[in-house]
Every structure is written in structure tokens, then in C-alpha cells.
């Protein structure tokens, strides 16, 4: 009986000795990841001058869709133009109307 209780106490002691440094290291890791700097979220002002491709044809006076990369992130935006632009055409954003819609010209 005494041998069993020593085994349980010894195992608990080893578990505590292993858990304390691991908990400390886990806390340091979480702290570093939580304070890691990130890039700013792209805004409408970041869109001007970006190049993209038409994925839904843009009719005169109406909206189509384009695909662009802003800050390394792919974005799909509504786009309008003064003239029709065909599917697959390269475009440049000239003005951001909102966070999700832009004015483009053919590149």
C-alpha cells in the first residue's frame, strides 16, 4: 500500500514539474502571437491605381465585376465605366465609389 501511494505522489510531482515550464512557454507563445503586428486593412483609398481583370462584363452606365489584388489579398469589386468593357479585359481603377464599387478604364 505504501509503495502505491509513493508511485502516485511521484507521478503527480513529475507531472507538475513538466507542466509548469510548458505552461510558461505556452503563455509566452500566446503573448507573442497576440501582439504580432499586422498590415492595415485595405480601404477605398488603397484601390485607386490598382490593376485588375474583368470577370463580369461591364455595360455602359451599368455595373460589372472585376478581380484585383490589394495588399496581397484578392478582391472582387463592382465596377463601372464610361464605355462597355468585355470579359477578361485588363483594367485600372481610377476612382473608388465605396469599399466595394469602383470606376475603371481599360488598360
Offer a concise description of the structure.
The chain is rod-shaped, with a radius of gyration of 28 Å.
Structural class: alpha+beta
Helix content: 25-40%
In total, the number of domains comes to 2
Taking pLDDT < 50 over at least 5 consecutive residues as the criterion, the unreliable ranges are none
* CATH homologous superfamily assignment of the largest domain: Nucleic acid-binding proteins
CATH class of the largest domain: Mainly Beta
Approximately what portion of the residues adopt beta-strand conformation? 25-35%
Based on Cα principal axes, name the global outline. Answer: rod-shaped
How many E-type strands? 5
CATH architecture of the largest domain: Beta Barrel
CATH topology of the largest domain: OB fold (Dihydrolipoamide Acetyltransferase, E2P)
Strand order of the largest sheet: 1-2-3-5-4
What is the arithmetic mean of pLDDT? 89
- How far apart the termini lie comes to 85 Å
Order of helices and strands: HEEEEE
Largest β-sheet summary? 5 strands, mixed, barrel
**From the alpha-carbon coordinates, what is the Rg to the nearest angstrom?**
28 Å
How are the secondary structure elements laid out?
Blueprint: H1 2-34, E1 51-56, E2 63-70, E3 73-80, E4 90-96, E5 101-106
Parallel strand pairs: 3-5
Antiparallel strand pairs: 1-2, 1-4, 2-3, 4-5
Description:
The protein is of the alpha+beta class. It folds into two domains: 1-38; 44-106, OB fold (Dihydrolipoamide Acetyltransferase, E2P) (Beta Barrel), CATH 2.40.50. Helix content is 31%, strand content 33%. The chain is built from one helix and five strands; from the N terminus they run αβββββ. It has one helix at 2-34, and strands spanning 51-56, 63-70, 73-80, 90-96, 101-106. The chain has a five-stranded mixed barrel. The model has no long low-confidence stretch (mean pLDDT 89).
Amino acid at each position: 500500500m505504501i509503495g502505491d501511494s509513493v508511485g502516485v505522489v511521484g507521478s503527480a510531482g513529475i507531472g507538475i514539474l513538466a507542466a509548469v515550464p510548458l505552461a510558461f512557454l505556452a503563455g509566452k507563445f500566446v503573448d507573442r502571437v497576440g501582439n504580432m503586428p499586422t498590415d492595415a486593412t485595405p480601404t477605398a483609398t488603397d484601390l485607386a491605381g490598382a490593376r485588375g481583370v474583368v470577370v463580369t462584363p461591364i455595360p455602359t452606365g451599368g455595373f460589372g465585376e472585376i478581380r484585383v489584388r490589394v495588399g496581397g489579398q484578392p478582391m472582387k469589386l463592382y465596377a463601372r465605366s464610361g464605355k462597355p468593357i468585355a470579359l477578361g479585359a485588363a483594367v485600372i481603377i481610377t476612382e473608388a465609389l465605396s469599399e466595394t464599387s469602383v470606376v475603371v478604364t481599360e488598360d
